[in-house]
Amino acid sequence: MREHVYDVFARKSRGDPLAHIGYVDALDDETARVYAWKTYDEENWFEMCVVRRSAIVPVNRDDGPFAGGRSEEP
Amino acid sequence: MSETTTSVEGMDDATRSGLKRLILTLADSKRLMGLRYSDWLVGAPSIEAGIAVSSMAQDEWGHARLIYAMLKDLDVDPREVEHTRSAEQYASVDVLDVPFPDWAAVVAGMVMVDGAITVALDAFCRGTFDPACSRIPKMLSEEAFHRSLGVAWYKRLAGSGSEEAKHLLRRATEDALPVLLRWLTAPDEVSSGLAAAGLTDPGDAQVAAFRDAIRGLAATLGVDVDAVGVAEGAWDPGRGRGSGHPQEEAVERARGDRNRMLFVE
C-alpha cells in the first residue's frame, strides 16, 4: 500500500500565521488527518491542516523543501 | 431520558448496583482497550500508525480514569477498584480478553470494539447521571479520531489486493460481532432496569445504533451485520459480560503490579 507525504500546518491562535510544523506519511487524507493530530499534539492548536505535498505548486524555485512532491504522483 | 440528576441518593439498591456495574463495564473496557492499543506502539505498519495507536492508548486510559472516578458518587473508592481486583472481577468486554493477533485485528478493534464501547458511552452520556453527561462528551470527540483512523484503515485493507489482509480483517470482524452484540444487548434485568431508570438506552436501541454505525463498512467485506446473531454461552450478570475474564498478565499490567512497590506516596 502506497503512502504519500503530507505537510502539516498549524496555528496556536486565530490571528497567528499558519506555520509549517512537520510532515506525516499517510495512506490517504483521512489517515493523514489523524496521524497529524496525534503526532503533533504537544500544543493546544487553534487550527491544524494537512496538504499532500504533491499538491504544492512551486512558484519561484524548483529546489525548495516542498518542491519535490509533484514528482511523487503518477 | 430527560433531565439529568446529580444525586444518587434517591436510587434504590438495585439501580445503584446496576449503575456501578455499568461504570465498571465501561471503565474496565476502556482500560483494556488502551492496553491492547499500547501493544502496537511497536509493530504497527508505520511510525505514524504506531504514534496514533499510542496516543489512542493514552486516550483510553484517560477515559478509564475519569469513568472510574464516577464510582465516588456511589461511595466506592476508585483507587481500590483500580488496584486490587483480580482478573476474574474485571467487567471488560469479552473480546479484549486476549491481545489482537495482527494489525487487521487492531483495525477491526478500532471500528468494531472501540465502536461498540463508544455506542455504550454515548447512551450513558445521554442518560440522567450528571457526571456522565458532563464528562463523556469530550471522550466522544476524541473517539471520533479513533473511528476515523479505523474506518480509513478498514477501507484500505478491505479494498486491497491482498487476500490475506481481507481474510484476517473478515475473520476479526466475524469473531467480534456476535460477542459485541451480546455485550450491548446485556440480556438481563440489570440492563433493563438501568434503561427504565433513564440512566442509559435500552440494549436493543444500542444494538441498532451499533449496527447502523458499522453496516456499510462490514458490507465491504461481504459481512451482513443484520444477519449476525448474538453470541451464546454463559452470561455473568454481576459483570455484564460473558463468563470468562482477561488474561491475568493483562490485568497485572493494568494494575501496575510489577513496579508498584517502587511507588512512594
Which helices and strands appear, and what pairs or packs with what?
The complex is a heterodimer of chains A (74) and B (265).
Chain A: E1 4-11, E2 19-26, H1 29-39, E3 47-52
Antiparallel strand pairs in A: 1-2, 1-3
Chain B: H1 13-38, H2 47-69, H3 78-84, H4 103-125, H5 130-158, H6 163-185, H7 189-196, H8 203-219, E1 235-236, E2 241-242, H9 248-255
Helix pairs in contact in B: 1-2, 1-4, 1-7, 2-5, 4-5, 4-6, 4-8, 6-8
Termini separation of chain A: 15 Å
Taken together, the total number of domains of chain A comes to 1
From the 3D coordinates, which CATH architecture of chain A would you assign? Roll
Mean pLDDT of chain B: 94
pLDDT < 50 stretches of chain A = none
Please state how the strands of the largest beta sheet of chain B are arranged side by side: 1-2
CATH class of chain B: Mainly Alpha
Percentage of helical residues of chain B? 55-70%
Order of helices and strands of chain B: HHHHHHHHEEH
- SSE string of chain A: EEHE
Task: Explain what you see.
- The complex is a heterodimer of chains A (74) and B (265).
- Chain A has 74 residues and is α+β, with helices and mostly antiparallel strands.
- Chain A has a single domain, classed as Ubiquitin-like (UB roll) (Roll).
- In chain A, strands 2-1-3 form a three-stranded antiparallel beta sheet, covered by helices on one side.
- In chain A, strand 1 and strand 2 form a beta hairpin.
- The longest helix of chain A has 11 residues.
- Chain A is flat and about 35 Å long.
- The two termini of chain A are 15 Å apart.
- In chain B, 62% of the residues lie in helices and 2% in strands.
- In chain B, helix 1 runs antiparallel to helix 2, helix 2 packs antiparallel against helix 5 and helix 4 runs parallel beside helix 6.
- Chain B starts with 12 loop residues before the first helix and ends in a 10-residue tail after the last helix.
- The longest helix of chain B is centred in the middle third of the chain and has 29 residues.
- Chain B is mainly alpha-helical.
- Chain B is built from nine helices and two strands; from the N terminus they run H-H-H-H-H-H-H-H-E-E-H.
- Chain B has a single domain, classed as Ferritin, core subunit, four-helix bundle (Ferritin).
- At the A-B interface, strand 2 and helix 1 of A face helix 2 and helix 5 of B.
